[in-house]
Design brief:
Structural class of chain A: alpha+beta
Strand order of the largest sheet of chain B: 1-2
Radius of gyration of chain B: 19 Å
Radius of gyration of chain A: 11 Å
Distance between the termini of chain B: 29 Å
Strand order of the largest sheet of chain A: 1-2-4-3
Order of helices and strands of chain B: HHHEHHHEHEEHHHHHHH
Oligomer: heterodimer
Order of helices and strands of chain A: EHEHEE
Helix content of chain B: 55-70%
Number of helices of chain A: 2
Distance between the termini of chain A: 16 Å
CATH class of chain A: Alpha Beta
Structural class of chain B: mainly alpha
Strand content of chain A: 35-45%
Chain lengths: 72, 363
């Protein structure tokens, strides 16, 4: 089971805040974050890595990216 | 597109900070005002003056650096396939935040970029400004922690993303049609300063090229002076901060080399020594930038990559500069303007109102 965080269309620093909120809940080890800019993609990846998650996959999806992070 | 963006790495952002830190004092050497090699707020204010939105005759010049920032970012965004036209995240609120950010910055006499350049030039008053900026951003992070947001953008027509870049191209064309004429305060529709900071500027072509270069690199690296402090306070992250500090260190060293470093509080170029209002002006600016999600430079770079809401913030700043000089809100080296203090208080109240009331859960 994975949780999806939809951060598309949100400006800095909302995507990171939403992703970190989900990480802190700690319910899922597998989180999908949807973003629509490269800046948000980089920021979410940087924040996830700093929280001990690893980036499992980044795939282009519609107008943005789907980032899958997994607790390592 | 899947390739690594080296400018978004630690050394990338440090390199971009160094690039700006070296070139800003060089622009000052080439003619820009003291400790104002680059100042996004001041330069947008000068643009407002050049267009006649205010008639403060010492601050009128169509600054090519600003034009370059937007167009350089546009170029980078297209080259790396990051141009994404988008709009619709509370534009009117961003306009108001832009206007009050400008008013706060003009009470201090500089945006965060100039605050750090003033410090790098030895101006002690900048310390008060930077403390105020940090305090304002800290208030902003409290709102962010409590769910403040401006809502989502929507993808839109390419034209929407092009409006501000086209406006900037229009400004450049105006400058070429109506160039500055020696000892003449006006040529066609453009106003020029004969004295004061507006009369001091680097050669057009050089200023434009430096602006384009910084715009390009800042788009790639996401350089943001407000984000530098916000990310530290909010997440304990120092990524953007390293770029900001790199700018400080390299600007300081360049100033030493160019003999532009003069330490002190009194008699600093385009600065006043009213500590409380240096602090409070930047508190207002910092809070407005934090709520709007980017420093004035970052808003220009975002506008260049298609963000129509950032473009509205930029227009808010330019109009805010008009208000600031028409209604006696802006400071001068003599101190705060007749209505500067009132404007800061009103601005803070407006920002608090926005911060407290826009907390609806994101759909």
């Amino acid at each position: 089971m994975s949780t999806t965080v939809d951060a598309r269309g949100l400006s800095c620093p909302q995507p990171v805040i939403l992703a970190l909120d989900e990480i802190k809940k700690g319910k899922d080890k597998d989180i999908i974050v949807l973003v629509d800019t490269d800046t948000s993609k980089e920021n979410v990846m940087r924040a996830a890595t700093s929280q001990g998650y690893r980036i499992n996959a980044v795939t282009p999806e519609s107008e943005g990216y789907r980032i899958q992070i997994i607790k390592s | 597109m899947a390739g690594k963006n080296i400018f978004a790495s630690r050394w990338g952002i440090i390199g971009v900070g160094a690039f700006i830190g070296i070139l800003a004092p060089v622009l000052q050497k080439l003619g820009n005002p003291g400790n104002m090699g680059i100042c996004v707020a001041c330069f947008e204010r000068d643009i407002a003056g050049a267009l006649g939105l205010h008639r403060a005759d010492v601050v009128q010049y169509m600054r090519p650096e600003i034009i370059g920032f937007v167009l350089g970012s546009l170029l980078a965004a297209y080259l790396f396939k990051e141009f994404r036209p988008r709009v619709g995240s509370a534009p009117i609120v961003r306009f108001v935040l832009g206007a009050f950010a400008m008013i706060g910055a003009l009470v201090f006499l500089g945006c965060p970029w100039r605050a750090i350049l003033r410090l790098a030039g030895g101006d002690g008053n900048a310390i008060l400004g930077l403390l105020g900026l940090t305090f304002g951003i800290w208030i902003g992070t409290l709102f962010l922690k409590n769910g403040f947001n401006l809502g989502r953008t929507q993808a839109t027509h390419t034209t929407v993303g092009w409006i501000l870049p086209l406006t900037m191209i229009g400004f450049l064309v105006l400058m070429l049609i109506f160039p500055q004429v020696q000892d003449q305060g006006q040529n066609g529709v453009l106003f020029y300063s004969l004295k004061g900071p507006g009369s001091m500027h680097a050669p057009l072509l050089l200023a434009l090229i430096v602006g384009l270069g910084i715009g390009f690199l800042a788009q790639r690296s996401r350089f943001c002076t407000m984000g530098a402090i916000r990310d530290l306070v909010l997440f304990g992250q120092i990524h953007l901060l390293t770029g900001f500090l790199s700018l400080l260190v390299f600007a300081f060293l360049t100033n030493l080399i160019l003999s532009q470093f003069h330490m002190g509080f009194a008699g600093q170029p385009v600065a006043h020594t009213m500590h409380l209002w240096n602090f409070a002006g930047m508190t207002l600016a910092g809070l407005a930038f934090a709520l709007a999600g980017g420093c004035p430079g970052r808003q220009l770079f975002l506008a260049g990559e298609g963000d129509g809401d950032a473009a509205v913030f930029v227009l808010g700043m330019i109009v805010g500069a008009g208000f600031a000089h028409n209604f006696g809100l802006a400071s001068s080296p003599a101190g705060v303007g007749p209505h500067g203090i009132t404007a800061v208080v009103i601005g803070l109240l407006v920002c608090l109102f926005i911060g407290f009331t826009m907390r609806r859960k994101i759909a």
